[in-house]
Every structure is written in structure tokens, then in C-alpha cells.
Amino acid sequence: MTIVITAPLAFLVLGPVMTQLSNGLATIVMAIYNFSPILFGIIGGAFWQVVVIFGLHYAFIPVLINNITNLGQDPINAVFQVTVFALAGAAIGFALKTKNAKNKSMGYSVGITGLIGITEPIIYSVALPYRRQFVYAFISGGMAGAIQAFANAKIYGFGNGGLMAFPLFIDPQTNSLHSMYSFIIAAAVAFFVPIILNFVLGTGED
The whole model's pTM is what? Predict the structure, then answer.
């Protein structure tokens, strides 16, 4: 009965609606980038992980792959990549500051997971239950995204995020490290700002 009820809904209602919503979101993002790369860097760096919550980030994958395939580089994903470090920093900062042993263990665990590019565990175990952590990630992600956009950073491949993304920022044609240096700076800002905010403003557990 579950399959009989949900399968038609998924194919006939939810699928088309979410596809249109995803495509519309991708169109809006590209319009913001074309209007102002720095504005896009702030908004994309701050709120990309919110898009991930709803699964709408899959709409961007064809856009990102198309940029790499046809242009050899992509400035959009160069911004999105720093958001991983913002959430990882929030989780690690949460773990460092909290006095709750269970939360400390959880924060370290999902924070390390975030550093290798997987943010969903952070979102559902730290960022949403303790919403202040999401705010910290918004702030640091927006700052890091602005740095990437200001530096005109590009990513030259499509692969996993986090620490394993650094080689993707090396220009394969010229071996230029400009984008990788920008990514290092932006990733450091995204990671350490939430840690500082946790110590200054608290974890939000209260």
C-alpha cells in the first residue's frame, strides 16, 4: 500500500514540482552571480548548506559539470566548497566549548566527517538542534564565499569536498596555484571563525 500510494505521488507530483523548484533556484543563483560575483559569494557561501537540507543541491550538479566540461573551470562550486569548512568549524567549535561529554564526542565525530566533505551529519546532529551553530556557519561561510569571489577563484575539477578538494583548485593548463591559495585562505576563515564565535558567544545549548 505504501508503494501504491507514494510511487504515483513521487513521479506525478513531487518529482515535477521539485524539478521545477530546483531549476528555478539554479537560474536565480546564476543570475545573482552574473549581477555581482561578490554578492553571490556572500549569499552562496552563507546559505548553500540550507539548500543541501532540502536536496535541491542536485539541481546544480549539471550546471557545475557543464562549466568544467565546456569552460575547463567553474567559479560557482569554488564558492560552495568553502561551506563545508564553515559547518566543520561549527561542529569542532561546539565540541571544544561544550561541557556535555556526549555533545563533545558527537561534535568531534561529525566535525571530522565534515572535513572530508560530508556535512549532513553536522546539519542534523549539531546545526539544526543547536541553531546558533548554523548562524555561525552562515557568517563564516559568507565571509569565505566573498573571499573566493573577490579573488576570482576557480575550481578545475569535479570531486569530493573538504580537505580532498584542494588539488581541484590547481589550474591544469598553467599550473597556477592562485585559486588554491585563495581556497586555503577562505577555508581557514570558514573553519576558524565559528570556533572563535563558539568561545565568545557560546554554543546555544541553553
Answer: 0.85
